[in-house]
Sequence to fold (776 residues):
Amino acid sequence: MNGVRVAGVGLTRFGSYPGRTGRDLFAEAALAAREDAGVPREEIEHLNYGNFMGAFAERQGHQGPLMAEAAGLSCPATRYEEACASSGVAAREAVKSIRSGERDVMLVGGMERMTNLDTAGATEALAVAADELYEVRAGITFPGAYALMARAYFERYGGSREDLAHVAAKNHRHAVDNEYAQYQREIDVEEALDSPPVADPLHLFDACPITDGASALVLVSDEYAEERDLDAPVAITGTGQGGDKMALQDREYLARTPAATKAAEEAYADAGRGPDEIEVAEVHDCFTVAEVMAIESLGFYEPGEGIGAARRGETTVGGDLPINLSGGLKAKGHPVGATGGSQLVEMTRLLRGDHPNSDVVSDARVGLTHNAGGTVASAVVHVLEVAA
Amino acid sequence: MNGVRVAGVGLTRFGSYPGRTGRDLFAEAALAAREDAGVPREEIEHLNYGNFMGAFAERQGHQGPLMAEAAGLSCPATRYEEACASSGVAAREAVKSIRSGERDVMLVGGMERMTNLDTAGATEALAVAADELYEVRAGITFPGAYALMARAYFERYGGSREDLAHVAAKNHRHAVDNEYAQYQREIDVEEALDSPPVADPLHLFDACPITDGASALVLVSDEYAEERDLDAPVAITGTGQGGDKMALQDREYLARTPAATKAAEEAYADAGRGPDEIEVAEVHDCFTVAEVMAIESLGFYEPGEGIGAARRGETTVGGDLPINLSGGLKAKGHPVGATGGSQLVEMTRLLRGDHPNSDVVSDARVGLTHNAGGTVASAVVHVLEVAA
Fold:
């Protein structure tokens, strides 16, 4: 099996770009990734691309060939859609293609434009990732769904809105120096608690923002990296995917996300690592409570123990396991189709030492990314390592 | 490399199902495929699923986990979107997963609901597969785009509306005995010529209909088929994918589809076959002229020679290379996300001898499927063979 290296990474700054098209955003990220990699465009064999709501937000489907063209490539392209895990899945399939020997050089990434919709429109578009028949028609959108999960969590394990506010404050603090973050500003716990309610017990600062942006990575085989003498110190050593019932009503648990556990178990086995070996992680905190359930599902905390992690300072600077040093979806932003790729970009930067927060984890050699779709009806986990 | 067998196939009849949901349609096809395969649901490791316009037509994205659940599976699932080639791409990636040894048993398929939109709505939804910025805003929808291609073809190579009408009449004739076809009725050349104009030179009977439907296949490794003693005589021996510029204006040719040529060359090389060894083919005839360009791009005819093939009787019963014995998209119907999978289902039935038209090609051992996205900005080709 061929090993997989991250040869280059690129991002747009996450934010609001009313004057730019999706292809323009993706081209910026793709060009940055290619330049970072030092790989000529002709050698890229395939694009694996993630997008969620292009058909709604830009009336643009069939984005595979469109984005290949925007990135200056003449190779074929494939679009993956797995709700908010779209580019996580795209990256996973690229890892498998390179491992199998089929490909040596691939471009991977994603893009989403959301701010051209108003808040109601974006909420409606996001709800397309829930079960239309049994959830959406009953009035559920994602803030409501995650509020149900938070309530179930509090009821079963305890915890409070204040615990969640610590997650928000932590991730905003992490984003301050991240030049790609939508919100490079701190908020304190009081400010999070006092923000307006969205769906009880979740308030505005429990939710990630609506965001435009793009992410891209050049992935190559070990062999190609060696032949071309590329500076590609970070390897993707584990990949896993899990699924669950789509609608919350059909789940065994509301306060746990077993799809993430399945994905993590597969990724750990694949990498030959365990959760105790992970030194830094980017997890899918579309809502603060999602980070709590993620760090439990990934095996970092027992069920019921994750809720206090941010409050206790364990998942921030100086803690044992810094989570979302990029700022997370919460503060960095969540352009849905770009997010999975963005997590891999941030983890690569953290591990190779050129992230503004790299000094927080200067000795770290093993990181993890966790990208989830919907209310974690799908999840993708990757393990990244500094190659020996 | 592990070989890939088709262990079972399933379809809904293509048509109009105002009272049924997408999940219901896919479940029917998936159940049929599982029963045909005789593979227990627990052994299916992953679903690769194609859908194009679910976000529009049913306000339902994230269909991967939803359709896995509908099919009674608890494995993860991935949705592929490549416009009208969505399930072709899904199948191709499944073939690669099994070959690489990663998986032994996969469900593959697709679904589309379109008739719940009116004709204008469906045309608008389909246009999401074109370039929104440079084609759709200029007023182009797919009938117009293919009309431009037909005009360019006539201008460069000659040919007439009557030649195209022969394609329509042929495919309708093929569909008469196909119990899954939307239109099991013959039309004659005069009727096609007299049908109302849609976009000159294309008339109504040059276009495929708007269709609901689903397709599914169980794909397994040779090894698994042997171990379980499955009756799976048809193998997928070649797969290829090609891409092109999205917008017609950026193409070198309007009257050729080089993405299909690239896909075919890759699939031929992969299977160790050439175009002269193909004995039967299902090609993407969303419009009659698309079949003409397909049989040229696939290497069956020189450019300019494909236009007369149906008129000369070469691509029908008694001809050298029967094309679209299922009825094709034209008469069998074109539920976009299901079409690539449906072509593989039909080819499997033709080769293993249980298709109503199998007697037309009773000695055939090698077949091809060609699935295209948009104006062939993407194309997927598979070679199928009766295993020795």
Notes: Chain A has a mean pLDDT of 97. Chain A has one domain: 4-117+209-386.
